[in-house]
Amino acid sequence: MVYLIAILAGVAGAGIAAVAGFALGAALAGALGISSFEGASGYFALSIGIIAGFAGLVAGIVLALRYQGTRGLGALAGRTGIVVAVIAALVTAGVLIRLATVEHFSGGTPTLEFEIRLPADMPAPDRGKVDFEMQAGSQRSGGLFKDEWMRRDGDRVVLSGLVPLYTSTSSRMLVVTLPGQPKLLFQIGLSATPKVSTEYGAWQRVGNLDDMKADSQPRPAAAETFEIRLRVPDWNQ
């Protein structure tokens, strides 16, 4: 029972201290003028949060052990070491179980290449205000524009991008954000392990739209003519 209480106290202490440390790190990054370029300020804040979290873990364990009657530096150090080792083993086991339940690809990471065709006469969007996100179960991955990111198909603008497929699942949705438009929710009809293709498939209409209002749910697309087509180049080459 003593060790269980110490484990719970350590976890609680680590969580509280990590949050406080991250907030302190973010504030210090701003005060010290650490740039956000390539995530430098974020990494700094994260480092402070990790250090503070470990300190909170040890402090919570020691306080709990002392409260339960453990006295003497040697006894405290020995029991604290045992509790830390048990927590580390539990975390390691949790990570291994999580990795075992997520299906990954062998031989590399597939890349989904896509083209988004906008409605007729819709003007070309500001590149910096367009965003792509692949949702595959609990996994999220951001998309990128290709170098030749825009072309015209008659009176319609076509945007070209790509996104990595980290998880082997048939449940995928590409979320496209365009300025002044609801979010476009494209259901990606690929198998868990997609077939390799050198050519784009047929154009498919957007399935649902999300108006991003607090009291609304994604709605079926009606007259909207946003379209997508896909291909997955061979990722083993």
Plain-language structure description:
This protein has helices spanning 2-32, 40-67, 73-101; strands at 111-117, 131-136, 139-142, 144-153, 156-164, 172-177, 183-187, 204-205, 208-210, 219-220, 227-231. The chain is α+β, with helices and mostly antiparallel strands and 237 residues long. It has 2 domains: 2-101, no CATH class; 111-231. The strands form 2 sheets. The protein has a 6-stranded antiparallel sheet, with no helix packed on it. Strands 4-5-1-11-8 form a 5-stranded antiparallel sheet, with no helix packed on it. A hairpin with an 8-residue loop joins strand 9 and strand 10. Helix 1 (2-32) runs antiparallel to helix 2 (40-67), helix 1 crosses helix 3 and helix 2 (40-67) crosses helix 3 (73-101). It is elongated, with a radius of gyration of 25 Å.
Give a short summary of the structure.
The protein has 237 residues and is of the alpha+beta class.
